[in-house]
Design brief:
The chain is α/β, with parallel strands linked by helices. The protein folds into 2 domains: 4-81 and 188-259, HAD superfamily/HAD-like (Rossmann fold, 3-Layer(aba) Sandwich); 85-185, Hypothetical Protein, Haloacid Dehalogenase-like Hydrolase, Chain: A, domain 2 (2-Layer Sandwich), CATH 3.30.1240.10. It contains 9 helices and 13 strands. The strands form 2 sheets. An 8-stranded mixed β-sheet has the order 5-4-3-2-1-11-12-13. A 5-stranded antiparallel β-sheet has the order 7-6-8-10-9, with no helix packed on it. It is globular and about 50 Å long.
Amino acid sequence: MKKAVFFDIDGTLVTDDGTSVFPKSAIDAIRNLRKNGHYAFINTGRTMMNIEERIRSVGFDGYVCGCGTYIQMGDDVIFYRTVAEDICRKTVELVRLCNMNPLYERADKFFIDTECRTTPFYENLVDGFKKAGMNMSYTANDSDFGFDKFVCWYDESSNLDMFKREIAKDFDFIDRGYGFCELTPKGFSKAEGIKTVCKKLDLQIDDTYAVGDSLNDLEMLMASGHGIAMGNGREELFEHAEFVTTKVLDGGIETALKHFKLI
């Protein structure tokens, strides 16, 4: 029986410590998974433009990106949902009013907001993107501004209560911890992405596996037939996982796939 495994990227396939190491054991395990006749999917909060060639070159059957707002199978985009222009503009004003530090994400671009202050983690992230060759010059004031989802950094000078109250009209708020949050259009998630893929492939949920490490993976783990938490992940995930594997650099992906006899 053919199975489908959905992999988060940061903290799951690659280390989430700034070095982004993608261990060979994980690459080999995914390729062996497909050789055994099973599906391998990326399921990430990243938008499609932010998935590097080194990840794509492993050979995935498809991509669930932007927390379920974009789904690609092979070379075909089977689903794409972006945020309406009026909501995008309204969101920008709210973020500015609440003194947050945003990064707006679309399938083809990132947008920064030069009218917002910046925080150290944001600055490091943007600097890393620039070094990787990404164009980080697009701004929230551009005529073609728009996004599929976004992330924000905040601290004691942010009006987080107002932000959470007002943003809830259009977005789901995911607290990633450490002054960092992720905002996805209401009703969209990695979990919904799995359901869409299952319908397309005529798979039963019990034949799906999801591997993640962060709080934005919680719904995915719970919605799949078999939830797998990385050993380096947030402890809050462990109680919701069927299996807790080892850390990224300790062969976590290989260990998980072997545990379920998929390789």
